[in-house]
Amino acid sequence: MAGTPGDLRGLTAALHRYIEHLGLRGYRPQGMRTAERYIRDFIGWADERGVTHPAQVSRQVIERYQRWLYHYRKKDGSPLSVAGQRCKLVPLRGYFRWLTRAGEIPANPAADMELPRKIKRLPRVVLTAAEAERVMAGVDLGQPMGLRDRAMLEVLYATGIRRHEIAALELGDIEAERGVMLIREGKGGKDRLLPLGERALHWVTEYLERGRPALAWNAQDKTLFLGAEGKPLSLHWLSTVVAKRVDAAELGKRGGCHLWRHTMATLMLEGGADLRFIQAMLGHAELSTTQIYTQVAIRQLQAVHALTHPGAKRRARGAQTAEGTPTPSPEPANAAEALLAALDDEAEQEAQEDAAGVGVAADA
Questions:
Q1: Catalytic annotation on 72?
Q2: Are residues 268 and 138 in the same domain?
Q3: Are 89 and 172 members of one domain?
Q4: Whose C-alpha in 207, 242, 244, 287 is 20 to 30 A from the C-alpha of 95?
């Protein structure tokens, strides 16, 4: 049977080897758990139909599984969303590609898999600087949760970090003296050091002094942002908290953590920041080489951030110049649009994760 771990040639044993491979490549534990969950769904489906070994999985079997997902109905009678179907299928591509490369099967049955078509994107939503201020000004600072939410919004606005990155922040990741923040093992397993900005640092300090002590009950837990019960925030709940703050401002715009990521990038672009500095903030690979920018020194990044981000300073500023601040270098005409399109793809992936109720679906 496929579900028998003792069968070293079975689909389940092959899955164990694949997950080990993902771990060796530095994939996040959450992403590996998600991939394993969805591949197990397929293995269980295949087992019921007498398909128990990788060599028995043909292109026709994959197509049959796709049709089954399309016609599947949940307990409430509703179908799987397009995003939900894609979440279940994407890990299979990585699984069978690895099996082929490892020589465990002669050909990849999922090589020609056509995923359900993505839902047409809505127009890109970002906040203006004034709208961002309105959202943050609406937070009640009289309660620990309000101080936490204001600090989280300020960090998201200042840095544009990903949802899982802010959830994973620990106390030691904030270097107040230098005004920087360490993102440990961001996407691709890469660490990066980011300027926090004096305003965001001020609100993080306020939260640490007046908010977090009222939430923390476990002195061993070093998680920066805690929930009402003193536990780390789940990714989905984090998005819900942020989205409620945006809704409360009645801007006619909606969005969670990724809205702030997109806003940061857009406002810094409009402020004249060189594209490579924005990519360094976002943790994006260089569009032309897929290499993470390493030549961007933190002091340069801090200078550019202070000059081009409208929320970097505690007080509004006028026109500023700074000696030694890098001047923008020419970029291809479509480079900025490509960066924003990459952010759109991230937002769509995040929506797919939420639709499925779990984290990143690995495709490697």
A1: no
A2: yes
A3: no
A4: 287
